[in-house]
């Protein structure tokens, strides 16, 4: 079974998670056979470790971790690879792959550029 973890930074503000929940809903609607979990590096639950444990416990054998970040910072360059290595040791029957950071994908950059460029045309 294939699975996807949408990984966000996390926040102390509970409303911060709303866009990630919407992304999960869209992915789940488009790919109903794909198990999709949210996970967070800090401040919120579930953690990456909890999400991977849940997916592995449900029979996932291939888990893609997709960072829903604009760019790679210290967490993604230093902390995340170590955490993934630890999870690979803990779940050897699962293939864990790290996807490209969402904000670095050409389509995402184009969408952000179109959105912010359009803001110049708004009244007020």
Mean pLDDT: 95
User: Separation of termini?
Assistant: 51 Å
How much β-strand is present in the residues?
Answer: 15-25%
Number of helices: 4
For this structure, what is the CATH class? Alpha Beta
Report on the biggest sheet: 4 strands, parallel
- What letter string, H or E per element, gives the SSE order? EHEHEHEH
Structural class per helix/strand content? alpha/beta
From the spread of the alpha carbons, the general shape counts as: globular
Contiguous low-pLDDT stretches (5 residues minimum) are none
Q: What is the number of independent domains?
A: 1
CATH topology: Rossmann fold
What fraction, in percent, of the residue positions are helical? 40-55%
Structural Rg = 16 Å
List the strand order in the largest sheet. Answer: 2-1-3-4
DSSP summary, beta strand count:
4
Which CATH architecture? 3-Layer(aba) Sandwich
In words, what does this structure look like?
- This protein is α/β, with parallel strands linked by helices.
- The protein contains four helices and four strands.
- The protein has a four-stranded parallel sheet, sandwiched between helices.
- Helix 1 links the parallel strand 1 (2-8) and strand 2.
- It is globular.
Task: List the defining traits of the structure above.
four-stranded parallel beta sheet; 124 residues; Rossmann fold; 4 strands; 4 helices; 19% strand
Explain the layout of strands and helices:
Layout: E1 2-8, H1 18-30, E2 35-40, H2 48-57, E3 62-67, H3 74-90, E4 95-98, H4 106-119
Parallel strand pairs: 1-2, 1-3, 3-4
Summarize this entry quickly.
With 124 residues, this protein is of the alpha/beta class.
């Amino acid at each position: 079974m294939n699975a996807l973890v949408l990984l966000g930074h996390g926040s102390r503000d509970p409303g911060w998670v709303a866009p990630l929940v919407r992304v999960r809903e869209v992915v789940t609607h488009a790919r109903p056979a794909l198990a999709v979990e949210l996970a967070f590096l800090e401040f919120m639950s579930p953690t990456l470790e909890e999400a991977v444990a849940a997916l592995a416990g449900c029979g996932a054998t291939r888990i893609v971790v997709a960072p829903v970040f604009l760019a790679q910072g210290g967490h993604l360059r230093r902390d995340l690879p170590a955490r993934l290595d630890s999870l690979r040791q803990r779940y050897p029957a699962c293939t864990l792959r790290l996807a490209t950071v969402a904000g670095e994908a050409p389509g995402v950059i184009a969408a952000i550029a179109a959105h912010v460029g359009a803001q110049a045309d708004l009244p007020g």
